[in-house]
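agent> Task received from the user: take the single chain below, predict its 3D structure, and emit structure tokens. No templates, no multimer pairing.
agent> Plan: (1) validate residues, (2) run structure prediction, (3) serialize to tokens, (4) report one or two observations.
agent> Step 1 OK, no nonstandard residues flagged.
tool_call: predict_structure(input=
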Amino acid sequence: MDAVSLFSGCGGLDLGFARAGFNIVWANDFDKFAVKTYKENFGEHIVHNDINEIELDSIPRHDILIGGFPCQPFSMMGNEMGFDDARGTLFFRVVEIILDQTRKGHKPPVVVLENVRTLRTHNGGRTFATIRKILTEDLGYRVFDTVLNTANYGIPQTRNRTYIVCFDNSDIEFEFPEPVPLERTLQDLLEHDVDDKYFLSERILRTVMSHGTGNFRARPEIDLRIARPLTATMAKMHRACQDNYVTQNGRVRRLTPRECARLQGFPDDFRIPVSDTQAYKQFGNAVTVDVAHKVAWQIRQALGW
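)
tool_result: status=success, residues=305
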């Protein structure tokens, strides 16, 4: 089945679906560095542009539309403005694409959307209710949704994300993937020969390990067995109660970009052709490959494919 990928980033969702046998025929992202990483690993079928500026006629016919639409408007890390934020309206661009494909006689039989857990509770649940109403009543899909945690699917990172799976067939029966035992820890994914630049100086260490100031107080923890959620701003090195730090050879260090890639399920042959700052951003924003793959496989099962 041919897939179109929106807001592709460096390709976590795409890699998961490709592993399940889906053919990604067209992709898009507005971040030139993410597009560079994507091209290095997947090929030239990704278009670098704002999705609002792309001609709908240029998007090819497809059997499944996938996309992790921007989460900042609905995230606790953002300002939680939802549809009042311009980025929040990108959901409606997804709707426009579906309607355009429908007018041409090939409505996507399957749509998969991914976002932060708090999408479901934003604005007292009204934002999510609006999204569901549009998908079901306006577009005619049968909608399944849940929150899946990366740590329940083989990767030692606590990362709860909302998954919305839509079928243009009211008879489809779909079940989200069952959790599997977690057999690895963060320590199992660490690199051994790490550049000195990743180790913290004593001055930075004091800040990172502080308990906070003013109204912000939290107990710093490092060397966790299951990593905290990776964030797009890891390059800034937040306190240890927010970011992940490990002890190696008696010194404390941040995670490397390769370790962040592993914590999102990317294989070690996945090329990282960008700076550390951009790599942290890309892997912090990425969809976990293993979760995407398991969701994709369940879709195959539901379709009898």
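agent> Step 4: summary for the user.
Residues 191 and 259 are 7 Å apart (CA to CA).
agent> Done.
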